[in-house]
Amino acid sequence: MALTGIQIFKLLPKTNCKECGVPTCLAFAMNLASGKAELDSCPYVSDEAREQLAEASAPPIRQVDIGKGVRVGKTGGETVLYRHEKTFFNPTLLAATIGSDISESDLEAKLTVWNVFQYERVGFNLRPELVAVKDVNGDKDAFANTAKKIAETSEFNVILMSGDAGVMKAGVEACGFKRPLIYAATEANADDFGALAKDNDLPLAIKADSVEALISLSDKLTGMGIKDLILDSGAREIKQSLEDQVAIRRAALKSSNKSLGFPTITFPCEMASNLDMEALIAGMFVAKYGGIVVVSDFIAESIFPLLLERLNIFTDPQRPMTVKEGIYEIGNPDENSPVLITTNFALTYFIVSGEIEASKVPSWLLIKDSEGLSVLTAWAAGKFAGDDVGAFVKKCGIADKIKNNELIIPGYAAAIAGDIEEELPGWKITVGPREAAHLPAFIKQK
């Protein structure tokens, strides 16, 4: 059970050294209790206290890392059943399958296509993370070669899928350096697969016929010293699989069931006969509560909406999505191009920039930090005031890029025009339309 701020405070050194970034140890303890700080920020906490705090502050669902380096995939680590209670932390990892019997040329072609699926959105690079290598015919050399090729030539992390311990061992030897996920230990092969995972310090998926059967299998493997498990309840019927996801999540969070306190893996690829239906099922598991979702193939029509859904669900609901403050070039603007300004609320940015692109008039778009508020809300809250906007325009450097000092402000912020003029002598302040949909005609007219 998580400790309260006062309980954490009693274990801290109480020096009020401020080296953690807050004024007092009590404030740091409160931040720890609410998940706003990391224990490593305190340089003076004792080893004994660190051990107690680390154990007490561990999330009820263990975080499991798959892969290594900058592309390591993290799943689990969740603390709430509903997103609005706090937030979801580690986004669902998306995987596609490749058979071990695939030819080298076909594998290269597929990886080339899959590597293209990277999308820039609100300052994030959205991309799928995993490739599941599926043992098709028990050929351990083919399995190992396919896994090695993916590990060495792509940025994808690897899931090794086989029920044969010999085949799995060959796959681990081929790509163990990339810390693949072993799938899957069952009641029949738990000893062999458990030993393989432990000896190579790899995460291990376990598969049973029900949630209840998972508990005994989980206890057996954790008893062997394996800490990083991924759970598969074995259900491949949509309704039952969803019920299992909810049951596992509730057991871990509400009942503190440590045997089920691990992320899950789901297989829409085994629940549907076409990619469209797979995408729908995958979307369901992104929301509730798949740690890893495996589909048959990555195609743009399905992976892009899944990535966007994942971004929305795993964005902190208490913090609005924002874009970085600065100057954005739309088209190829020059010194005579119009200059517009708006807030850094992500939705506002994408709507405004999209309408400017639609106008086909190269423009400069200034984004002012408004703490993620929309124009009207930011103006009402004093986050988009005339003097602040004027000061930002001065310091951002746009004056060095243009000849005609004219600034177009949002119609909803017309009231700040006078204050901006006072802050920016020599500039012409033009009030633009209230609705972004009217921007193309407005800009063309200008």
Description:
The chain is an alpha/beta fold and 446 residues long. It has helices spanning 5-11, 25-33, 47-57, 104-115, 140-153, 165-175, 190-200, 211-223, 238-254, 275-287, 300-313, 346-359, 375-380, 386-396, 417-423, 439-445; strands at residues 64-66, 73-75, 93-99, 119-121, 124-126, 130-134, 157-161, 181-185, 204-207, 229-232, 265-266, 292-295, 326-330, 339-343, 363-368, 406-409, 428-431. The strands form 4 sheets. The chain has an 8-stranded parallel beta sheet. Strands 13-15-14-16-17 form a 5-stranded mixed beta sheet, sandwiched between helices. Strands 1-2 form a two-stranded antiparallel ribbon. β1 and β2 form a beta hairpin. α1 crosses α2 (25-33), α10 packs parallel to α11 and α12 packs across α16. The longest helix is centred in the middle third of the chain and has 17 residues, at 238-254. The model has no long low-confidence stretch (mean pLDDT 94).
